[in-house]
Amino acid sequence: MIISRRELLQSFGATAIWSVASSTLGFADPVWHNVEEWGLEGKGWLDTERFYDRFPARAKSMVPDNVWNLSRQSAGMYVRFRTDSPNIKLRMDLLSSSLALPHMPATGVSGFDLYARMGSKKWQWVKQAMPTAQHVEGDLANGIAPGLRDYVGYLPLYNGVTKLEIGVDAGAKFEPMAPDKRKPIVFYGTSICQGACASRPGIAYTSIVGRMFDEPVINLGFSGNGRMDSGVVDLLAELDPSIYIIDCLPNMSAAMVKERTEPLVQKLRSARPNTPILLVEDRTFGQAPLYPNMLRDHAARRAELSGAFDRLRSAGVSGMHYLKGDRLLGTDSEGTTDGSHPNDLGMMRFAEVLKPAILSARR
């Protein structure tokens, strides 16, 4: 009987091995480094209940239950390190056994996504994990070109992490890179902000923006939520970002937009008098030109957001900026997975539209 490498490894308890190279069965064991030893970027608070949570433990009594549960998912978090190892491996334990969604693959929901820096600016995609179980293990790079370089690895968008380790060859250099202390770009929004439906964590528009500006980002997107809840706004005000980007309209009615936008801006402006605030309209549904009710809903929400923006400016609130939503995903109807959530093309378009808006807001 012939036994495959996968079967051989699984017989020893190595589950969810998405790719097995010859080095996996070699003689030298990798040296493993636990990410908790040096820390994550994309994490706004250190006083979390679990290391890989997005909100502090006290948020449990401040925000809706659904938002708290979603804050246990690691969307937008990432780890940096430097190595010259030609082989890089991953060991990751996931919080949930639900690895994929009907409209979003396991690579985005539960995967780990690795990029390498090429030269002084460009980030080159390397590989993603393809989870098949809660324990994820395998190669992220195998026989990569020689050289010491920086890496960034993005954590799952719609799952949580309980343990994460990076493995490199014995004798290779490995330098943990501490979280960037510069002021982050802070995003607050809905499932789109959280990352649905990117095929990989690095393709979420927040991740793309982070690489575009080479700056730290914090992703506070919450699927089915992002409704300018007062408790979440209080937490946002604790942060000290370079800019707040508020992308909440997709899950709000026009009445909610009217009621909650001005208190949100006033709270943030009171806490951070000089931090730019960018209000973003909802993206246009891909099929909206065929559905008058969708167009009416878009128009109603946007009218209330625009009205709140004008009232705040008339009241003397400074540092506010506004981004229209009609071109966020393009105009050819090809930028979504399901009409609502961006596919990879839509995510890239979203980031490209955000870039000049951020530059303008921070001038």
Mean pLDDT: 93
Structural class: alpha/beta
The count of helical stretches stands at 9
Instruction: Give the strand order of the largest sheet, numbering strands 1, 2, ... along the chain.
Output: 5-4-7-2-9
Helix content: 25-40%
Largest sheet: 5 strands, antiparallel
Mass-distribution shape: globular
Rg estimate, integer Å: 21 Å
Instruction: Find the count of extended strands (DSSP E, 2+ residues).
Output: 14
- Separation, N- and C-terminal Cα atoms: 68 Å
* Sequence of secondary-structure elements: HEHEEHEEEEEEEHHEHEHEHEH
Low-confidence stretches: 1-16, 19-27
**What portion of the residues fall into strands of 2 or more residues?**
15-25%
Q: Would you kindly provide a written description of the structure presented here, covering whatever features stand out?
A:
- This protein is of the alpha/beta class.
- It contains 9 helices and 14 strands.
- The protein has helices spanning 5-11, 65-70, 106-109, 191-194, 205-213, 230-238, 254-271, 292-314, 344-361; strands spanning 31-34, 78-83, 87-94, 113-118, 122-128, 135-142, 149-154, 161-168, 174-177, 185-189, 217-221, 243-247, 277-280, 320-323.
- The protein has a 5-stranded antiparallel beta sheet with strand order 5-4-7-2-9, with no helix packed on it.
- α8 links the parallel β13 (277-280) and β14.
- The longest helix has 23 residues, at 292-314.
- The protein is globular.
- It starts with a helix and ends with a helix.
- The model is unreliable at 1-16 and 19-27 (pLDDT under 50).
